[in-house]
Design brief:
By secondary structure, the protein is an all-alpha fold. It has two domains: 358 residues, Na+/H+ antiporter like domain (Na+/H+ antiporter like fold); 41 residues, no CATH class. The chain is 73% helix and 3% strand. The chain has a two-stranded antiparallel ribbon. The longest helix has 29 residues. The chain is globular, with a radius of gyration of 25 Å. The N terminus and C terminus are likely disordered.
Length: 463
């Protein structure tokens, strides 16, 4: 009897695996959807944080957030408060996710065009320089000047949540461009943290992190694909960087650079192997025999699973596994632990009168979009970059305005800027919340007034 490989069980299996591989190979669209969901959760976490900070449970929640947790080995101990575990530990996973996104998009995604990458990079640079300069002009005080990094950051999840609510007017291309710009913005944040917000450097720990990173790259070159290997070395790298005085979140981006981006087998070999295995599966023991009764069928399905794993790069596997916990758990948890401020008349008056507040507001609401737009204009005039197809001028302006939503990342910078001054952190949070609300309101109004409703099907086809 001749088995027809194009019909029956074979075609169903092939369709299943094609869908499986396709879901891994197109994660940017999934990221946009998950980030929008995360943005809604961020808003919920912010509301809860504000309620806790202004309720009878304020001290109880503060004590819980500052509770020490760690590991003891005899006389040696490594402990951090819960808020530090979230801010330096879990947020390192966020920067790992960012690094994986960048690496994938440059190697095989929507950022392969060098001129588009250059324009987005230059735009992100403008979105850092613009707000930093305006902040320094408004807050030249020596102590307050340490906060210049606060208005340079964009909260991708929060911004995408708002864009998702405006989906009738926001094209897929606009969402992709904004996401790519935010990714490069996050890279800038990592460099700012590692260069300008590092504590006193521990040379021995820094050397240890360099050795660990070298082992990670050697594992990559040796073809090691084990998640356990990269996880353990990544944990050692995180500890070494934490002890070195550089902010531990930088370990996430460095680890991403070392994650392999090559499959073990080619796509053609994968297809040939799957066809052979599926043919054997149909022929073995007859179609009436159930899986539980056939050891040979189980062996074949295990071989199929190994081939699926071999054709998928570790980078894609790790990114897809991190996507949900980062966007659904880590970022909202960071907001819950850090976003709450006590609303009292004194803080309100201090915030209104402080140049710190207005430096942040000016940087995020004016400096951020202005820097992005000026740098994009210069890039296009000098013909050293180009915009992706299908992006209008009004959409670019809308993206620039929405980039002024700092929220979680700006709060993150406020703790780095004023680690020993809770009063300044409170004022900074006040400025960040005001700025983010203003940027969200102005950006929403611009999109509603200047961007016509889109035919989503046409937008998808065009992109």
């Amino acid at each position: 009897m001749t088995t027809n490989l194009s019909n029956g069980p074979i075609s169903h299996f092939k369709s299943f695996f094609e869908n499986r591989v396709s879901s891994v190979l197109t994660p940017l669209e999934a990221l946009i959807r998950k980030q929008a969901t995360s943005g809604i959760l961020l808003i919920a976490a912010f509301v809860i944080a504000m309620v806790l900070a202004n309720s009878p449970w304020q001290q109880l929640s503060r004590d819980f957030f500052n509770r020490e947790l760690g590991i003891h080995f005899g006389e040696r101990r490594f402990t951090l408060s819960l808020v530090e575990w979230v801010s330096q530990g879990l947020m390192a996973l966020f920067f790992l996710q960012v690094g994986l996104e960048i690496k994938r998009e440059i190697l095989g995604g929507k950022l392969r065009d060098p001129r588009e990458i250059l324009l987005i990079t230059i735009a992100a640079l403008g979105g850092i320089i613009g707000p930093a300069l305006l902040y320094m002009l408004i807050s030249p005080n020596e102590i307050l000047s340490r906060g210049w990094g606060i208005p340079t950051a964009t909260d991708t999840a929060f911004s995408l949540a708002i864009l998702a609510l405006l989906s009738g007017r926001v094209s897929i291309g606009m969402m992709v461009f904004f996401t790519a710009l935010s990714i490069f913005d996050d890279v800038g944040a990592v460099f700012i943290i590692s260069i300008f917000y590092a504590h006193s450097i521990n040379a021995a720990a820094l050397a240890g992190s360099g050795v660990t990173l070298a082992f990670l790259f050697l594992a990559n070159r040796a073809g090691i694909r084990s998640g356990m290997t990269y996880g353990l070395l990544g944990l050692i790298l995180w500890i070494m960087i934490y002890k070195s005085g550089i902010h531990a979140t930088c370990a996430g981006l460095l680890l991403a650079l070392a994650i392999p981006a090559r499959p073990s087998i080619s796509q053609n070999k994968f297809v040939r192997n799957i066809e052979k295995l599926l043919a054997r599966f149909v022929q073995k023991d007859g179609e009436s025999v159930e899986m539980i009764e056939s050891a040979s069928k189980h062996s074949i399905t295990s071989a199929i699973e190994q081939n699926v794993s071999a054709v998928t790069t570790p980078l894609q596997m790790f990114e897809s596994k991190l996507l949900v916990p980062i966007t659904i758990i880590v970022l909202p948890l960071f907001a819950l632990f850090n976003a709450g401020i006590e609303l009292d008349p004194e803080l309100f008056m201090q915030g209104l009168l402080s140049p710190l507040t207005w430096g942040i507001v000016g940087g995020l609401v004016i400096g951020k979009p202005l820097g992005i737009l000026v740098f994009i204009y210069a890039c296009l005039k000098l013909k050293i970059g180009r915009l992706p197809e299908g992006i209008s001028r009004n959409e670019i302006i809308g993206i620039a305005i929405m980039s002024g939503i700092g929220f979680t990342m700006s709060i993150f910078f406020s703790f780095l800027s004023f680690p020993a001054d809770p009063a300044l952190v409170g004022i900074a949070k006040f400025g960040i919340i005001v700025s983010s609300l203003l940027a969200a309101g102005i950006g929403t109004a611009w999109i509603l007034l200047k961007i016509p409703k889109k035919n989503q099907i046409q937008d998808v086809a065009r992109i």
